[in-house]
């Protein structure tokens, strides 16, 4: 995280060992309280800053507006920060809380990660900003380590889904490390005033206790219920011990398994484990992986509609459940335009169109930017995806629908991707109450939408909080036994994230490419043998009231 190259002119107030400052960001500039128009009041349990004017450029300019920051202490000694700001003329975007007195050395955005201060030629003592919601910050909660060996937490108490950013930078002017907590307003409701929901900041010994506090917030404000109380879990899901990834057609057109071949694989598999314990997951059943999105028609090269119907019938005859893969938001621009869905392309808060630009599908070193990211909040696209998914259930009798990239979110000024995903799921359950809905990666509010996820990280959520609400299996790029191929997944041979998963929390997965049950039959059988013995062992957070 870079820092402003001059003394910005922040005003800090102190309570206990910490100092707090506040900034207001608009779509045009960033402001601090005007020190000449400032009132600071102390109370027994807190301090309040009120400014009826703003400065910018280190005090070289002034603007009409207000900033307020109130800090108090909770019963357990935590600091509770709330605030608001306004600008007379400009649209407010974010409100930033600066915290000094915690000599930050590391931050944890999710379990298994410990981001330490980076010192490079570009700067000293910084931790790059991370945004919630994302699969890299699944809760609006971080844990911070300081140079004294203490652990701290910072938790947002927002009762709506709005972006939060976390970072730390070294301030060269004061010589102090800053913890930065930023709240961004929903782009659909921005105006000249912004309120900052409470931030709770304090020392912590038991991280699980703070994670559980966030869970209670989820249940109180967002309606999440623990997994045993869910009404959208097909009973058969609790019998699943093995998720078989039957890879179809690669982006480049290479076929790993036809529908006939998938049937052979399932017969071979169910000779080694009961079919009721197997979920057949079908990535790229619809032709070239990602390239054909969002047409979602059975690939003729794999066997077409007749082949897919026969596969599902065969699987059901073995007791196996079948779940094909769709994309929650990706589309080939050529097909998107033919379908009249160009207006549904996801935008960020600045109105910029989102492209899936981070993958080099054909390995020529230049990413293919012809894939756009669609917003499931857009009514036309959501209705289209409902109809395509419903057809798979009605015509082919599949047992569930997997949505890829469900975690992707942007602060779109027109439609909310999260609200669209929730609405899609609600309509699918209304039409087909018996089916399973399955998501890829997550942030905490999505745990109410899908009862199972593929997770690149694991266990997801601090203290394994995901498992209070949902189940988890290995990521699609999980290597196939023996060869280690990732099949259709862009990670191919290079994926190693599976090592982060906790075996007792993660439903075993079997990635099947063309040589899995021939050349590498012994390694494949070993995976199945482990799956037969697998039992889910929930973390403590799953059962605490």
Question: Which keywords apply here?
Answer:
30% strand, 2 domains, 10-stranded antiparallel sheet, single chain, TIM Barrel, 30 strands, 9-stranded antiparallel sheet, 545 residues, alpha+beta
Tell me what the structure shows.
- There is one protein chain.
- With 545 residues, this protein is α+β, with helices and mostly antiparallel strands.
- The protein starts with 12 loop residues before the first strand and ends in a 12-residue tail after the last helix.
- It folds into 2 domains: 193 residues; 307 residues, TIM Barrel, CATH 3.20.20.
- The mean pLDDT is 95.
- The chain is built from 8 helices and 30 strands.
- The longest helix is centred in the C-terminal third of the chain and has 18 residues.
- The strands form 4 sheets. Strands 1, 2, 3, 6, 7, 10, 13, 14, 17 and 18 form a 10-stranded antiparallel sheet that branches.
- 48% of the residues are buried.
- α5 packs parallel to α6.
Please give a quick description of this structure.
The protein is an alpha+beta fold and 545 residues long.
Count of DSSP-assigned helices: 8
User: What proportion of the residues form beta strands (DSSP E)?
Assistant: 25-35%
- Helical fraction equals 10-25%
**CATH homologous superfamily title of the largest domain:** Glycosidases
Report mean pLDDT, rounded to a whole number: 95
């Amino acid at each position: 995280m870079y820092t402003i190259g001059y003394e910005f002119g922040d005003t800090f107030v102190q309570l206990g060992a910490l100092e707090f400052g506040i900034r207001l960001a608009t779509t045009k500039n960033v402001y601090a309280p005007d020190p000449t128009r400032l009132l600071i009041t102390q109370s027994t349990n807190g301090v309040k800053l009120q400014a009826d004017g703003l400065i910018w450029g280190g005090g070289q300019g002034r603007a009409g507006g207000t900033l307020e920051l109130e800090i108090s202490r909770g019963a357990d000694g935590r600091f509770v920060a709330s605030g608001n700001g306004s600008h007379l003329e400009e649209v407010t975007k974010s409100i930033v809380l600066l915290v000094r007195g915690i000599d930050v050395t590391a931050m944890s955005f999710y379990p298994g990660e410990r981001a330490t201060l980076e010192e490079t030629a570009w700067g000293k003592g910084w931790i790059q900003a991370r945004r919630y919601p994302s699969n890299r910050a699944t809760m609006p909660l971080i844990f911070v380590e300081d140079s004294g060996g203490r652990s701290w937490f910072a938790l947002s108490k927002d009762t709506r889904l709005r972006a939060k950013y976390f970072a730390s930078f070294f301030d060269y002017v004061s010589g102090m490390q800053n913890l930065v907590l930023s709240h961004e307003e929903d782009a659909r409701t921005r105006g000249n005033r912004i309120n900052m929901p409470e931030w709770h900041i304090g020392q912590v010994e038991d991280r699980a206790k703070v994670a559980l506090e966030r869970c209670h917030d989820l249940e109180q404000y967002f309606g999440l219920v623990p997994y045993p109380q869910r009404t959208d879990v097909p009973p058969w899901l609790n019998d699943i011990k093995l998720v078989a990834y039957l890879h179809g057609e690669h982006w480049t057109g290479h076929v790993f398994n036809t529908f006939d071949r998938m049937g052979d694989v399932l017969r071979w598999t169910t000779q080694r484990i009961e079919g009721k314990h197997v979920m057949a997951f079908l990535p790229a059943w619809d032709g070239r992986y990602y390239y054909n999105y969002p047409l979602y028609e059975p690939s003729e090269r794999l066997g077409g509609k007749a082949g897919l119907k026969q596969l599902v019938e065969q699987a059901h005859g073995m007791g196996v459940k079948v779940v094909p893969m769709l994309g929650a938001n990706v589309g080939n621009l050529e097909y998107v335009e033919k379908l009249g869905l160009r207006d549904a392309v996801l935008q960020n808060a600045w109105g910029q169109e989102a492209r899936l630009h981070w993958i080099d599908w054909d390995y020529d070193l230049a990413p293919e930017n012809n894939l756009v990211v669609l917003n499931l909040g857009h009514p036309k696209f959501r209705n289209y995806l409902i109809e395509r998914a419903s057809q798979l259930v009605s015509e082919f009798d599949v047992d569930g629908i997997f949505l890829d990239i469900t975690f992707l979110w942007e602060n779109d000024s027109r439609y909310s991707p999260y609200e669209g995903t929730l609405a899609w799921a609600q309509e699918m359950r209304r039409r087909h109450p018996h089916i399973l809905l399955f998501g890829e990666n997550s942030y905490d509010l999505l745990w109410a939408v899908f009862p199972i996820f593929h997770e690149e990280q694991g266990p997801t959520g601090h203290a394994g909080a995901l498992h209070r609400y949902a189940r988890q299996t290995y990521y699609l790029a999980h290597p196939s036994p023996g060869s280690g191929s990732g099949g259709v997944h862009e990670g191919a041979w290079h994926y190693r994230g599976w090592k982060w998963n906790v075996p007792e929390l993660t439903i075993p997965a079997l990635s099947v490419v063309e040589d899995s049950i021939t050349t590498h039959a012994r390694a494949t059988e070993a995976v199945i043998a482990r799956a037969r013995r697998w039992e889910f062992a929930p973390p403590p957070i799953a059962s605490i009231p």
